Amino acid sequence: MALTQAAVLRNERRTVRRIFVMTLVTRTPVSRNTERFTFTAPEFANFEPLAADEFFALVIPRPGRDLPSLPSTDADIRTTIQSLPDDVRPDVRWYTVRAHRPAQQQIDVDIVLHGDSGPASRWATHARPGDRVGFRESSAPYLAPEQGHVLLVADETALPALAAILETQAPAGPTTVLAEVPGPADIPAIATDATIHWFHRGDTDPGSALLPALPELVTPHLDSLGYAWLCGERAIATEARRWLVAQGVDPELIMFSGYWRLGHARP
Fold first, then answer.
1. How many angstroms separate the CA atoms of 35 and 238, rounded?
2. Label partner for 84 (CA 20 to 30 A): which of 55, 92, 176, 188?
C-alpha cells in the first residue's frame, strides 16, 4: 500500500490501536459471492473511523478453537499473533468497515466468499450468529481532495471501501469511477449519484476488462486530476498507477493498494 503523505500524517494521529472481541449478529447476502456480516462490541460505541475506507485486522480463531486471549492494544498485530503458541495462533486478514453504527454498537463487514480456500473465507462460510472474532484497529487510506477531479478504481474485493466512500465521503467535485467484477451478479447496491463504469471480466485475469478502458475514460480528466484511489487485485492497482504516472500524474496524488494477488495466498 502506498499512501499520500497527507494520509500518512492523519493516520499517525491514532497513536493507540485497540484490539477487542466482537460477536457476529447477522449475515445477509449482498451479491452472488458476497455477504454482509454485522458484528457488535461495546467498543464500537466510541470507535472513530479515520475515513470512509477504514480497514481493520480481522483476527480469526483456529477451526474448532476459541479466540485466544489478546492484549488490549498493540503496535504490530502480526508480531502479537506470532508470539502465541502454534496450536492457538489465530489468522489475520484485512477488511473494510462497510458501515458503522455507534448508537447500536455495530459495524458491517462485506466478505467475498470463495469456499475454504483461505482462513477468512473458511470462517465466514461456516460462521453463525454468536461466533466471536477479534477486531484490531488499523487506518484508512482515502483522503478526499478539496479540489480537482477524482479517480476511483476498484475490483470486487475493494467494492466495500468504494461503496463506503461514495455513500459517506463522496468527493465534492467531478469524479470518475471504474469497477471490475466477474459478472453482473457480482454488482452490489450502492447508494450514490455517481456514475459507475462497470466492467465484467468473466473468467479472464483481473484488470483485463478495466485497464484497457483507462485511456478513453480518464485521459480527458488528466489535466484536472487532483487525486486517484486505486484498490483491488495487485495488477489492477499497480498497472493503473503505472499508466497514470506515465501520463504525467504526480505520484503524490495517487493512493494505490493491492488487496490480493492472483495465484498467491496472503501470508
1. 27
2. 55
